[in-house]
Structures are given as C-alpha cells and as structure tokens.
Amino acid sequence: MTDRYILAIESSCDETSVAVLKNDTELLSNIIASQIESHKRFGGVVPEVASRHHVEVITTCIEDALAEAEVAASDLTAVAVTYGPGLVGALLVGMAAAKAFAWAHGLPLIPVNHMAGHLMAAREVKELTYPLMALLVSGGHTELVYVSAPGDYHIVGETRDDAVGEAYDKVGRVMGLTYPAGREIDELAHKGQDVYDFPRAMIKEDNLEFSFSGLKSAFINLHHNATQKGEELVLENLCASFQAAVMDILMAKTKKALERYPVEMLVVAGGVAANQGLRERLVEEIIDVDVVIPPLRLCGDNAGMIALAAAVEYAKGNIASLDLNAKPSLVFEGVEG
Ligand code: KG4
Ligand code: ZN
C-alpha cells in the first residue's frame, strides 16, 4: 500500500497554520505562525490585520510544513482546508492558497469545518469510538456535539450568547490582563478562592443550553462598583470565582448531555480545553465514560487538527470543487429532542 499524505491549511482566525499528516494518523509537521502580538494592543483580533498577516506568511508556512515533514508536493494525496466558521477575509486567504496548490498539483480538495478540526484533534490521543459526545469550547463557540459516526456531527446544545473563551477574554480585559486572557486567568485562579459567588446561569434548567453573558455582566458590575468605591479586589480570588462559575456550568451541562445520550467516550476540545481547572474537574467527576482531551499543542488553532478531521472526510469521499466558498457562519446541523 502506498503511503497517504494530506497537506492541511488553517487560517480562520489569527493563526496561519499548515500541517502534513501521514496515513491518517501521524502528524509529520504542524507549522503555526501566530499573529497574537499584532492583535494584543487592540485587545482582540482585528479582521483586516489578520488577513494581511495570513497573506504574508501562508506560502512560507506551506514550504516549511513540507520541508519539516520531508514530503514533496508530488508525494501528496490531497489538500485540506478550513472553509468555516471564522473571519471571512482570513478564511479566504487559506482557501485561495489551498485551491491554487490543489490545482497546480492536480490534487483533490477536502473541505473541513474548523470545529470538526478541534474535535478531531482528539484522534492524536487514541482511536475514537462512536457514538461519542463532545464538549467544544473555544473563543467563538461553546457547544455539545453528538458524533454518531465518523464525520457525522450534530449539535445538541450550545450557548445562547457569549462563548466561554470570549467571556474569559472580556473579563480579562476588565482586569487589565493581556489578550487572550484565558491562560492567565486559569493560572491566577489556582492561587485564589471562590469567594465572590458569581451566578451559574441555567444550571438547573433541564436543557443543554449555555449562557455566559449574565456571568460576564455580574463580573463587570462587581469590578466597576469596587473601583468606584475604591475597594481592593483580590485578583486571584476574582479569577478563581469566575473560573469556578464557568466550570460548574460546563460540568453540569456536559453531565446532562451524557445522561441524555449514552456514549462511552467524551471528547473535550477547543482553545478552552487547555484549561487546567477544566481538566482537573473532568478527571474527578466524569468516571463512567472515557474522557479524551487533545494535547495542549493541538487545543489552540492549528492545521494538524484540520488534517486529522480531513482524513475522516476523505474516507467519506467528501471532496470539494475548486469553486468552494468560505462559510463564515458554518454550523453543524442540530438534532431534534
Ligand atoms: O480554539 P481557539 O484557539 O480559537 C478559536 O477558535 O476561538 O480558542 C481561543 C480561546 C481564547 O478565548 C482563549 O482565551 C481561550 O481559548 N483559552 C483559554 C485557555 N487557553 C486558551 N481559556 C481558559 N483557560 C485556558 N487555559
Ligand atoms: Zn478554533
């Protein structure tokens, strides 16, 4: 059998990334060019700046990924690319590069949903068993996804307002932390106590929906009132209280999803899956199902995860034509009930 190599490209937000995957499971390279430094001073990702950075580095990233993998373009089997969800201008850069590369080398183009990428990063840890439940937590998404078979994704619950990562970044900004603040809040939380008693929205409701905007407002109000009165707030305790509220919500809804959908495996993925507090609680509280969390290097945005999801799409025969368009609001279809 000849070896199969997939070149994958990811550019949906602020990371330009290119990876090479061998025989569906082995990541030979995963080049990630982060633009974070350029966005920090704005306190968030500026779409126009993101697109420009992607244009500047995409070609080098492709060359580097092939060089590190020691794979020539002529060895490749297919090219995969994220076509949504994400920033339209940013997506288009990766897609133009992927299409041009596929066309020039006569390769099939595999379209990949960015959130499927986050989820399938778990394939690096072990072979996934189906059906499985996934908790996807990133800067733009918070969703529970039921995966009935490889590549068959159904949303069973999601946030009504802010995504978890977004809430982390917003309260981080209020505390004067640098963007993105998730990791720093996580570190500070481990040095503090849950003393501020923030609300746990919808935690008792019998559904799989999340809401984080009330928590965010409660945090901002507390901070604002204390500042006005000249009261000192303990940063570590603020972080610990915020994180405890977030984790209570995530854990409650994930357990409810596991009750409703009997599965043997839970995947937890996305940028927020890097959270140590979340990892600790999953280990302590989810005992009946196998919890699979991608390694830290595959939690944030990267093309390795896109390649791992692409292998599944390729096996399904999901090949796009070269007029594939970017879908900034691409979603998995939901299921009833
Ligand atoms: O998946 P990702 O890299 O990009 C998106 O697709 O959105 O997620 C980025 C998000 C940011 O909001 C960042 O603050 C958050 O993940 N994040 C964390 C941690 N590390 C990154 N949130 C909580 N705890 C962390 N350790
Ligand atoms: Zn992402």
SS-based class? alpha/beta
Percent range of helical residues: 40-55%
Strands of the biggest beta sheet: in what spatial order? 3-2-1-4-5
| Major sheet | 5 strands, mixed
What is the tally of beta strands? 10
Observed structural traits:
alpha/beta; five-stranded mixed β-sheet; binds 5'-O-[(R)-(carboxyoxy)(hydroxy)phosphoryl]adenosine; binds zinc ion
Q: Please, could you describe this protein's structure?
A:
With 337 residues, the chain is of the alpha/beta class. The chain has helices spanning 36-40, 47-69, 88-105, 114-120, 164-174, 182-189, 213-229, 235-260, 276-285, 303-316, and strands at residues 5-10, 15-22, 26-34, 78-84, 109-113, 132-137, 142-149, 152-158, 265-269, 290-292. Strand 7 (142-149) and strand 8 (152-158) form a beta hairpin. Helix 5 packs parallel to helix 7 (213-229) and helix 8 (235-260) packs across helix 9 (276-285). It is globular, with a radius of gyration of 20 Å. The structure holds 5'-O-[(R)-(carboxyoxy)(hydroxy)phosphoryl]adenosine (KG4) and zinc ion (ZN). The site of zinc ion has 5 residues, from helix 4.
In short:
Helices cover 41% and strands 19% of the residues. The chain has 337 residues and is α/β, with parallel strands linked by helices.
How would you summarize the topology of this molecule?
Layout: E1 5-10, E2 15-22, E3 26-34, H1 36-40, H2 47-69, E4 78-84, H3 88-105, E5 109-113, H4 114-120, E6 132-137, E7 142-149, E8 152-158, H5 164-174, H6 182-189, H7 213-229, H8 235-260, E9 265-269, H9 276-285, E10 290-292, H10 303-316
Residues 114, 118, 138, 271, 301 line the site of zinc ion.
